[in-house]
Amino acid sequence: MSPEVSRFAPSTTGPAHPGTLLAALLCWLDARQLGARLRLRLEDLDPERSRPEWRDGLLRDLAWLGLDFDDSDRQSDFAADHEAALDRLEALERLYPCRCSRSELRRAADRSDGELRYPGHCRDRVLPAGGWRATHEPLRVRLPDDVAPIRDEGGALLVPEDGGAPGDPIVRRRDGSLAYQLAGVVDDGRIGVTRIVRGRDLASSTPTQVALQRLLGLPTPRYRHHLLLLEERGSKLAKLHGAVDSEQLRTRYDAASLCGLLARVAGLRDDPAPLRPAELLADFDWRRVRRRDQLMRWTGERLEWLGPAVADPSADPASAISS
């Protein structure tokens, strides 16, 4: 067994959709070909949107597609580790409460890189005498003002060569729940993750996560960000946008047929003939995986592949994430 440790970490805020299943398939193929240990982490910290039925549905859908995992856990079971990380950041004098409203942030945030970047209005505030547990305001972490340049395994430049602050992220929300950025970093460190394979929509999170890893003294995994499935207008084919969900897919496809279609769209096969994930392992190669995002349409009866999105990140590896 390889010393590599990988993980697939879907949120439990909705049913699986084609993009979820493609991301799971690529992560599984990468790990199994390397002989890596593959963990499944169900990210269920959002108290308003996470539901047990969606968690159970994800487990069912991944098994139905033919994907297995060496271990699994729920993020909510590790609150003590998350709190210890907040204690560590407090000891480093990096935590501060933030009173900014969302409307204020939208008006003031820097959108130069396509992301809302916190402008630092509350950066000089300090925690109350009782520490982070004594405030009900959202908490941010004061990150270093620059981050060393980072490229993922596909060659995409995640942080410019001249560095640049990723902005101070929320690490605990107003409702008391831990935010995605910190929870994911802590959990990856706890289980010794060495590589992360995920969609390029999450690439903008990587500089923030690397900065948090360095503050907490955690190792930085290797990252690879892959293509997305987009609906025909260009938005991500995702549960947030009402994409076709796994329940609908399973009424029209058996697992082998859907796997074959996903493999064809991703570039792993020249035709969409039915197959199981294990049949893709022998000749799996990231050089065969399409770099361009792919457009798809749900007709009510089937998934229709419309071809590549307009942007072509393969023309310039450094632009692969922003394209």
Highlighted features:
323 residues; 13 strands
What does this structure look like?
The longest helix has 17 residues, at 18-34. Mean pLDDT is 87; it is low at 312-323. The protein has helices at residues 18-34, 52-65, 79-91, 102-108, 180-191, 206-216, 246-252, 255-266; strands at residues 5-8, 37-42, 71-74, 95-97, 139-141, 150-151, 157-159, 170-172, 195-199, 222-226, 229-231, 294-298, 303-308. The protein has a 3-stranded parallel β-sheet, covered by helices on one side. A 3-stranded antiparallel β-sheet has the order 4-5-8. It has a 3-stranded mixed β-sheet with strand order 11-12-13, covered by helices on one side. Helix 1 (18-34) crosses helix 8 and helix 5 (180-191) packs across helix 6. The protein has 8 helices and 13 strands. The protein is α/β, with parallel strands linked by helices.
Topology:
Elements: E1 5-8, H1 18-34, E2 37-42, H2 52-65, E3 71-74, H3 79-91, E4 95-97, H4 102-108, E5 139-141, E6 150-151, E7 157-159, E8 170-172, H5 180-191, E9 195-199, H6 206-216, E10 222-226, E11 229-231, H7 246-252, H8 255-266, E12 294-298, E13 303-308
Parallel strand pairs: 1-2, 2-3, 9-10, 11-12
Antiparallel strand pairs: 4-5, 5-8, 6-7, 12-13
